[in-house]
Design brief:
Strand content: 15-25%
Strand order of the largest sheet: 3-2-1-4-5-7-6
Distance between the termini: 40 Å
Radius of gyration: 18 Å
CATH topology: Rossmann fold
CATH superfamily: Vaccinia Virus protein VP39
Number of strands: 7
Number of helices: 8
CATH class: Alpha Beta
Helix content: 25-40%
Order of helices and strands: HHHEEHEEHEHHHEE
Largest sheet: 7 strands, mixed
CATH architecture: 3-Layer(aba) Sandwich
Length: about 230
């Protein structure tokens, strides 16, 4: 049994899905939905979309002008809930396909999608690494968008330990050969990502169109939209 199956089991998925139905009481969730609607509106329909770590399909309804929508998640229990997602009657995608798989290794056709988005997954539940960015770049059509959130290392949700405080101070003044290992530790090997790390990872295959901080109910996030070069 995979760790995702163990952690995100049926009981967790039911609780998560119940929270979906309280969507309208959550300002961050509404803002994420508006963000996706604006992204879709800026693209010429029909667009093909991949939700990376789709969970219960919380945001499927917010997408517009979509031909094929694909959701990938490693938890079968979460995908079971995604078959009847929040606001299901408002989903306008022509087709919705749910795939159980690890986003680090799940096979996806190259240059298939116009938009790949991921909310509350990368640099949170899955490390944000160069290999993930390279995979997304291969999945996107030229000019396609990669839209995602990360947990910022300055988030108040991260315990402010003495080691983190000392490490942050040293990283700011240390020479680069010492500062980089310190930064890697502060970013928990990709479990968190600040603006600098996002720029470092996306610099080659993407042009960053927007990158800013956002405070949700749980974390301080980086919020990024990037366009695939070429």
């Amino acid at each position: 049994m995979s760790s995702a199956s163990t952690i995100y089991d049926a009981a967790y998925a039911r609780r998560y899905r119940a929270h979906d139905d309280e969507f309208d009481s959550s300002d961050p969730c509404r803002r994420f939905a508006v963000w996706l609607q604006q992204l879709c509106a800026a693209m010429t329909p029909p667009i093909d979309v991949l939700d990376l770590g789709c969970g219960t399909g919380r945001y499927f309804w917010a997408l517009t002008g979509v031909g094929d929508l694909v959701g990938i998640d490693a938890s079968p229990a979460m995908l079971a809930e995604a078959r009847v997602p929040h606001n299901a009657e408002s989903i306008t995608a022509r087709t919705v396909t749910l795939i159980e798989g690890d986003i680090v290794s799940c096979p996806v056709d190259e240059e298939r999608f116009d938009l790949v988005y991921s909310i509350g997954v990368l640099a949170e539940h899955v490390p944000l690494e160069a290999s993930i960015v390279a995979r997304v770049a291969r999945w996107l059509k030229p000019g396609g968008r990669f839209a995602f959130t990360t947990v910022h290392p300055d988030s108040s949700s991260i315990p402010p330990t003495v080691k983190r405080s000392v490490g942050r101070a040293l990283a700011a003044v240390a020479p680069s050969f010492l500062a980089q290992p310190l930064r890697d530790r502060l970013l928990a090997r990709g479990r968190y990502a600040d603006e600098r790390r996002v720029r470092e990872l996306l610099e080659s295959p993407f042009v960053i169109e927007s990158l800013f901080r956002f405070e949700s109910e749980a974390h301080l996030h980086c919020w990024c939209v990037a366009r695939k070069r070429g």
